[in-house]
Amino acid sequence: MLLAVAAAAWLVAVVLILPLGYGRDNDSYLMLHTWQRMAHDGIYMPSRNPSFPFAEFAIGSTAAIGGAWLSNLLIATCAATTAVLAYILALKLEVARPALVTALFLASPVIMVQSATSIDYMIAFSCLLGGMVLILHGRVLPGVILLAVSVGTRMPMLFYAGFFLWLMARQRTVEGLRFVEAFAVLFFVSGLFYLPAWIHNSLGFGWITASWIEDQGMLAWLARLAVKPTRIFGLIPSIAAVGLLAVLWWRGRLALPWRSSFATRLSLVMCLITVAIYMRLPTDVAYMIFAIPFLGILLVECNAVPVLDLLVAGGLLTAVVEVEPLVILSKDGDECGWLVRSARISPHFVAGPVLAEIQGHDLGERCGRQWLLIDYEDANRPLP
Fold first, then answer.
1. Enclosing domain of residue 119
2. Interval 187-196: pLDDT, tens
3. Which of 77, 86, 95, 179 is 20 to 30 A from 112, comparing alpha carbons?
4. What residues contact 202, with CB distance under 8 A and at least 6 apart?
5. Across-strand partners of 149?
6. What is the model's pLDDT at position 215?
7. Are 175 and 138 in contact (CB under 8 A)?
């Protein structure tokens, strides 16, 4: 029942957001700019460091054929595939309630938005889980190739793929899987995607980094680190989930089967990788979505299903309305909110991510279109 409700809510959100254009994320328009430069000038210019080659090609080419509705449909298909793969992965890892893992994934309002806009996360995520599932089923080479496509979409996926191969090799449950050989193939194939970026940078390596945020001091870094992750399921549900987890631990109902459960070890490592990456650059909450299925597996494995249920319910509510603990003040004249002047603590209700995406798509599009090489008249017609 919980999975059905989460799936229905996800589908409604996708249907409402998908026709509204490429989305409010500037990175979407930067990737379209990259495609336009390739199509019109024959020049590859990465959308941003360290480049996102497969996504730039996939999103740009579909937008050139059918506009935003087609590129968004591609992303929605990848998101639906990711949800199915999360279920299969949990099933293969012998997780007791795999449907709850998928429900947790679909119930996040951040996932709902990322599933219906032209951005790279769902392409990378579907390839990552697809590669994991193939390898767990003994199909090593196709699995490694799919992991490489994930890395070719987002370079940080190399950490997820590499640690997964290392953990699988230690398990010795898949015949023919040797870490050094598998990682060498992963590194070589994924590296091919980045050859254009390497050539564009005159065979230097300074581009292998992420753009850093404007220096706002340690306090701003800590604020981003503490507040933004709560937006995955909402501030109040996140606080309540931590409280419920503490109560379950105090009553002795939690268990962490680290030694006996490969699912627990894998999920814990994947969650820690996500946290480490986000700590490096705590700007976009979407960086955290790669932990969601693995968080679901951990909660089931640790006998914390009530916490999972709470997060699902909270996520569905947060899609429409959420509590924002801070008031962010932008610099004068910054309509798009790119230049933060300061922030103050002032809890208040705001539109949730799904509702905000629907209400703010005009402003988001207006801010994003300035990055295009050639502007369009209608987002849902082929990109010029």
1. 2-210+219-371
2. 999 999 999 9
3. 95
4. none
5. none
6. 55
7. yes
